[in-house]
Write a structure and sequence with these properties.
single chain
């Protein structure tokens, strides 16, 4: 079992270099999705990847249009991998609003993290630290409590904050 870590994929219809929109997706969005597919295929072929940890900003904005959401869901489903997706600042419209990654969590073998949480991936303990506000010390304090509770020597902390 091998884990692929992706960050800041920013899937969305980017205006700059976007080109024409066809069926709700522009050229740039399709290029991003194809680059992710290629990365996943190469990771599976070369390393036997079974799981993806996406460390935030899966989407470029908190309210992707329906075509972008569907294309992202198809990307995740068609990969055949287990996905762990952390909310980034671009994935949030506000802290009381639904997060753009939430629908992905309805797919089989997909877990989304909008709050600091612990999990296990490929037998390895992880602490997931999504973007929960501008003050990273709050999120990191919550993560430290989970790390202390685990009381294990090897824990991976997957974090969206730039530290």
């Amino acid at each position: 079992m091998t884990i692929l870590v992706l960050g800041d994929t920013h899937i969305g219809n980017h205006i700059q270099f976007g080109g024409d929109t066809v069926d709700g997706l522009n050229r740039r969005c399709k290029e991003i999705i194809n680059a992710i597919k290629l990365t996943i295929k190469e990771a599976i072929d070369a390393h036997g990847v079974t799981d993806v940890v996406q460390i935030g900003d899966f989407f470029d904005n908190a309210r992707p249009n329906f075509a972008v959401l569907c294309a992202a869901m198809e990307l995740v489903k068609s990969s055949g991998l287990r996905w762990h997706i952390i909310a980034g600042n671009h994935d949030r419209a506000g802290f009381s609003a639904p997060c753009s990654i939430s629908p992905l969590g309805e797919l089989p073998n997909v877990w989304t993290y909008e709050k600091v949480a612990r999990t296990e991936i490929c037998g390895i303990p992880f602490v997931m630290v999504p973007y929960i506000g501008n003050d990273s010390s709050i999120a990191l304090s919550q993560a430290q409590k989970l790390i202390d509770q685990l009381n294990k020597p090897d824990i991976v902390v997957a974090c969206h904050y730039g530290l």
